[in-house]
Model the fold of this input.
Amino acid sequence: MTTAAARPAARPFGAVGLVAIGLICQEVGASFAVLLFPSVGAIGMVSLRLAFSAIVLLAIARPRLRGHGRNHWLTVIAFGLALALMNALFYEALARVPLGATITIEVLGPLVLSVVMSRRASSWLWAVLAFAGVVILSRGSFGDLDPVGVAFAFGAAAMWAAYILLSARTGARFPRLDGLAIAMTVGAIVTVPFGIATAGPVIFQPGILLLGAAVALLSSTIPYTLELVALRRLPSATFSILMSLSPAIATTAGFLILGQTFTGVAFLAIGLVITASIGAVLSASRAARGGLPDANIGEPLS
Done:
């Protein structure tokens, strides 16, 4: 018989499971996206992903468009542009660099943001540790990394940090999922013309559209829904630590689904980045308890 004291302890465990499932779905979705690159290219994949994600979010949220001032609209449009650029840079990196390496580099964006927001000099040690991991990563742990792909991954990292800041501002100005639905629609409007121009008529083939919808479902709809439920049960610091595990999950997905190989050195590199991410989250959490603003490693929906 389950006691009253045992039941609350089970709830966080269930929430951790939801986050883990969301992370797995996201990286599996990214792997499927890579399989579509030969057909539609990176930008074509971005347009499919954002278009289907926007359709789903608009159907779920049914955002109210009236009653918002100019500053509200500027914020949500900026959020949508950041979302589009983050995804475009991420998929361009993914077209050139293995999934695990791409995610490991991309995590640097929220990590550095968390370090900066903690306002503690000691927190920069975590940033140094993370960059050491990336340096090791670039020394052949996934083979020779394409420098252009690495540059795209660093760009995606910067846009992930911008995404987190703009997401917080949008959430303060729009209720529920309204802001995200509008921002996703803005991102889709911006990227779809480029996707059609680069991919051509093939992007409208039923099989391609079906796979694009599957990527959107795995990469956005399922993870975001699970994380919304989990965040009601988990402290934000715990959630952020779990998100820090994404490089390891991405590397596993890349190996199992895409056949991407890596050396033993990759484990050291990824371990350093994950350790730095967890350390930065805990440091930011302590700073928040001391009255300083908190910066969480958020879900990039990419």
About this structure: The radius of gyration is 19 Å. The chain has eleven helices and no strands.
